[in-house]
């Protein structure tokens, strides 16, 4: 995955945290967009290098997602 790729965020699943407990910039389930940047994903004390993907959807919304939850379309 690299900047410029078209990606799709997976659909929300029951085991995801309550949307009210998730920052709004992570609310992108089911959306498609263009990758803007890739950086490190921080999960509590853990750091996952290269797993944070920021993309912009067709409405101009900026979304941050974990790379493992995205599918590269092109």
Q: Helices and strands in order, then pairings?
A:
Elements: E1 6-9, E2 32-43, E3 46-57, E4 62-66, E5 70-72
Antiparallel strand pairs: 1-2, 1-5, 2-3, 3-4
**H/E series, N to C?**
EEEEE
Oligomer state of the chains in this structure: single chain
The rounded distance between the terminal residues' Cα atoms is: 9 Å
The biggest sheet, with number of strands, parallel, antiparallel or mixed sense and barrel status, is: 5 strands, antiparallel
By CATH, the topology is SH3 type barrels
Overall helicity: under 10%
Summed up, what is this model?
With 74 residues, the chain is an all-beta fold. The chain contains no helices and 5 strands. The chain is globular and about 30 Å long.
What report would you give on this structure?
This protein has a single domain (6-72), classed as SH3 type barrels (Roll). The protein has a five-stranded antiparallel sheet, with no helix packed on it. A hairpin with a 2-residue loop joins β2 (32-43) and β3 (46-57). The chain is an all-beta fold and 74 residues long. It is built from no helices and five strands.
């Amino acid at each position: 995955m690299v900047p410029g790729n078209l990606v799709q965020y997976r659909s929300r699943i029951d085991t995801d945290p309550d949307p009210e407990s998730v920052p709004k910039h992570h609310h992108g389930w089911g959306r498609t967009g263009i990758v803007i940047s890739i950086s490190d994903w921080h999960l509590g004390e853990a750091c996952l290098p290269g797993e944070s993907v920021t993309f912009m959807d067709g409405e101009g919304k900026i979304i941050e997602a974990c790379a493992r939850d995205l599918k590269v379309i092109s």
